[in-house]
Design brief:
361 residues; four-stranded antiparallel sheet; single chain; 23 strands; 13% helix
């Protein structure tokens, strides 16, 4: 009986507080002796319980571009005689620049040509890069010999030397069947020239240029303490300078923490951050932009198909917990879940999609 009295008191209080609203009419009578009269009808607002998806999101500033740039340093002897223009694209076998007026073609791989490949029987990852590229270009290199341990690379076989010689002949080079450092450049894949560092007349072993990915992406500095809520493969929304919103996917979470030192704190430069890379799902959406400041929204937590109401519909019970009030004045005890965008996830006995509840606003 005591609990029922407490709920009744809470309900009476709610009705008085809600009297300034507009919407459903709820009648309340009070008794204060023989001269009591019915009070004026109290008008309160209502909201509808809906089944929806809730997402806890955060919006952070980012920069659209081609990602971090890398320096390409030349190797071998000679003089730079021709350099590419910024924005040029490097592709397999095509010449990127010229040394001593000889074209330097591009191979793809992760190990540069650091020695002259001439003697059969040598083995290494540079030999594997040569073999992989010649095969990709359609040359028969014979059976790969990888008798060494894992990661030691292929062997420079007579068949591979013969394939190299045929490629050199077909591309107008001296068909020697050997490859010296500086006669071909190894890049991680198709890249875009960002800036040109060398000029004709510079030594071949100087810094020649910087390059970036050919794919446009958004770099977002995320506080190191919060980066755990974002995963590779997560979806994100990118708002462009013209107000358009496009979809993107998280592809990379950086491994280098930036800032956050005692000196940074003294200079008030902000907390430690890690760069998160988001790639637009459709390259056409950013075709006409090379660089821009954007806003990126990450949905860090999602609840699908839950019942939700405006937060203002919650009634805090004196004995603890929350309830929702029906327009007829009865209360429904509810358990709350996720809060997002002014809504709260609720569950409770008798609560269904489409139910009407009183709200303070």
């Amino acid at each position: 009986m005591a609990r029922r009295s407490r709920v009744a008191v809470a309900l009476s209080t709610l009705l008085v507080v809600s009297a300034t609203g507009a919407g459903t009419v709820v009648w309340s009578h009070t008794h204060a002796g023989r001269d009591s009269k019915a009070t004026a009808p109290l008008r309160v607002r209502t909201a509808t319980v809906t089944r929806t998806d809730l997402a806890d999101s955060r919006t952070l500033p980012g920069t659209l571009g081609f990602g971090r740039s890398h320096v390409l340093k030349g190797t071998g002897q000679g003089i730079v005689t021709q350099v590419p223009k910024p924005g040029a694209r490097a592709s397999r076998e095509k010449s990127l620049y010229r040394i001593d007026d000889r074209p330097v073609p591009v191979f793809f791989g992760d190990t540069p040509f650091f020695r002259t490949l001439a003697k059969t029987g040598v083995r290494g990852n540079d030999v594997s890069v040569l073999a992989d590229n010649l095969r990709a270009l359609g040359y028969d290199t014979g059976s790969a010999v990888t008798a060494g341990g894992p990661g030691e690379g292929e062997e420079f076989t007579p068949a591979l030397a013969a394939a190299l010689k045929r490629w050199q002949h077909d591309t107008g080079q001296d068909a020697t069947g050997t490859l010296a450092p500086g006669r071909a450049v190894v890049l991680p894949g198709p890249v875009r020239v960002d800036t040109v560092e060398a000029q004709p007349g510079d030594a071949a072993d100087a810094a020649l240029l910087t390059y970036t990915s050919t794919v446009k992406s958004v770099t977002v500095p995320v506080e190191a303490t919060a980066v755990g809520t974002i995963k590779s493969g997560d979806k994100a929304e990118v708002t462009l300078p013209d107000g358009r919103t496009i979809r993107g996917t998280v592809t990379t979470l950086g491994r280098t923490v930036q800032g956050g030192t005692a000196q940074d704190a003294a200079q008030q430069t902000g907390p430690a951050t890690i760069d998160v890379t988001v790639v637009p799902d459709r390259a056409a959406d950013v075709r006409h932009l090379d660089a821009a400041a954007v806003q990126v929204r990450f949905d860090t937590t999602t609840r699908k198909g839950v019942l939700a109401v405006p937060v203002s519909a919650l009634v805090a019970l004196r004995e603890g917990g929350y309830a929702l009030q029906r327009p007829d004045g009865t209360l429904i005890a509810v358990t709350t879940g996720m809060f997002a965008g002014g809504l709260v996830e609720v569950s409770g006995k008798g609560l269904t999609d489409g139910s009407k509840v009183v709200t303070a606003s």
